[in-house]
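Retry 2 of 3 after timeout on previous attempt. Resubmitting structure tokens to design endpoint.
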């Protein structure tokens, strides 16, 4: 996890833990389940990765990039 302002590291960690706890409790067919977290990235110290099942359409970024603008508007509209 990269935090620009080093004085906020503890606050950011606390907020991340709260958000991850909320995500872990969610159970909905349209929300990927949180399986856990990892910090094992070798040389990338301080990084936190969230682990979920792999979705057939790949990442949300890839999925949204392959959609028509109108499809995206309907999803968030």
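Retry 2 succeeded. Sequence:
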């Amino acid at each position: 996890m990269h935090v620009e302002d080093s004085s906020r590291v503890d606050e950011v960690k606390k907020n991340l833990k709260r958000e991850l706890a909320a995500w872990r409790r969610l159970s909905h067919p349209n929300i990927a389940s949180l399986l856990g977290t990892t910090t094992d990235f070798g040389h990338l110290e301080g990084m936190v990765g969230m682990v979920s099942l792999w979705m057939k359409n790949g990442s949300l970024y890839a999925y949204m990039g392959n959609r028509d603008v109108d499809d995206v508007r309907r999803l968030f509209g």
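Attempt log closed. The longest strand covers residues 34-38.
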